[in-house]
Amino acid sequence: MMIDKKITANKKYVICNWKMNGSVLLCEEYCRMIENLVSCNDKNRIMPLEIIVLPPNPYINIFSRLLDNLGDINMQNDIISVRVGAQSISSVDFDFGSYTGEVSSKMLHDIGCSYILINHYESKKINPTCNSIKNIQIKLKNSWKNCLIPIVCIGHTIEEHDSINSVQEKVFNEINEIFSNFDFLINESRKNDHINDKTFSKIEFLLAYEPSFTIGSDKLQEIDKVDVICSIIKDIVSNNIESNIQKYKFNINMLGLIYGGSIDQFNIKYICNSSKIDGFLIGRKSLDIESLTNICYNVLNRLS
Ligand SMILES: O=C(CO)COP(=O)(O)O
């Protein structure tokens, strides 16, 4: 497998997955943190940082409104931008209807979400049926249809982790399964009344590599291994789905590869040095403003 250094996103990401945590107070604290980050940031940096916040659904709108109140924060400083997303969408293949308890991607787009987390290990554990490959593909299609950018999680278990070959096989199979039917998904996603070839010229997604045994465990995977696996993943994407998606103006050089699992304010200093990683998916430490600020500073200072 060749390591392709070209495949690097043109910005860096810190993705804050609150999981089933948060409060109005946390929304307010986040806004203060963002103000501080922007005001302290060196405006001459070349690599922009996008902070993506994924609160539980009841807080999405509150957080977005508080963010709006900050004014032109994203304009003042091209280097740091903030976007909001959701942690899950329904696998029901409709925008509206009698589906008690379900939330569609159309609704999430309506309240200002830009991103949607798909195929997260914890969601799969809690609700395997709703996260079958068929349902993941429905979620992908409906995200694109409603202009949401999917953050697609992939990973492997501790048993598979012991051999690079089994990791490679697992991530290869998972990526290929999820992105099989690509033509069909894209064509279906374009059936939205408001979207046609002119307005919907680009397919975007982020891939998040999260080994399941590192999630919530305080065990960061060895950085050398993360580097190797991230290279393998970028190779798999470029070898297997790039040709399929070129016609949809998907730019492989823009693919963001995100790493997640027990990132904190200490280990970020090391893992930040990886040239293969375009950003981080953070769980517990995204709830701790001091740690998160520290993580953001490290990403701003190290990744380039
Ligand atoms: O699952 C994760 C982010 O989506 C990682 O969670 P932790 O950072 O708490 O390990």
Automatic annotation (TrEMBL):
<dbReference type="GO" id="GO:0019563">
    <property type="term" value="P:glycerol catabolic process"/>
</dbReference>
<keyword id="KW-0963">Cytoplasm</keyword>
<dbReference type="InterPro" id="IPR035990">
    <property type="entry name" value="TIM_sf"/>
</dbReference>
<dbReference type="GO" id="GO:0046166">
    <property type="term" value="P:glyceraldehyde-3-phosphate biosynthetic process"/>
</dbReference>
<dbReference type="InterPro" id="IPR000652">
    <property type="entry name" value="Triosephosphate_isomerase"/>
</dbReference>
<keyword id="KW-0324">Glycolysis</keyword>
<comment type="subunit">
    <text>Homodimer.</text>
</comment>
<keyword id="KW-0312">Gluconeogenesis</keyword>
<dbReference type="GO" id="GO:0005829">
    <property type="term" value="C:cytosol"/>
</dbReference>
<comment type="pathway">
    <text>Carbohydrate degradation; glycolysis; D-glyceraldehyde 3-phosphate from glycerone phosphate: step 1/1.</text>
</comment>
<protein>
    <recommendedName>
        <fullName>Triosephosphate isomerase</fullName>
        <ecNumber>5.3.1.1</ecNumber>
    </recommendedName>
</protein>
<dbReference type="GO" id="GO:0004807">
    <property type="term" value="F:triose-phosphate isomerase activity"/>
</dbReference>
<comment type="pathway">
    <text>Carbohydrate biosynthesis; gluconeogenesis.</text>
</comment>
<keyword id="KW-0413">Isomerase</keyword>
<dbReference type="GO" id="GO:0006096">
    <property type="term" value="P:glycolytic process"/>
</dbReference>
<comment type="similarity">
    <text>Belongs to the triosephosphate isomerase family.</text>
</comment>
<dbReference type="Pfam" id="PF00121">
    <property type="entry name" value="TIM"/>
</dbReference>
<dbReference type="GO" id="GO:0006094">
    <property type="term" value="P:gluconeogenesis"/>
</dbReference>
<dbReference type="InterPro" id="IPR013785">
    <property type="entry name" value="Aldolase_TIM"/>
</dbReference>
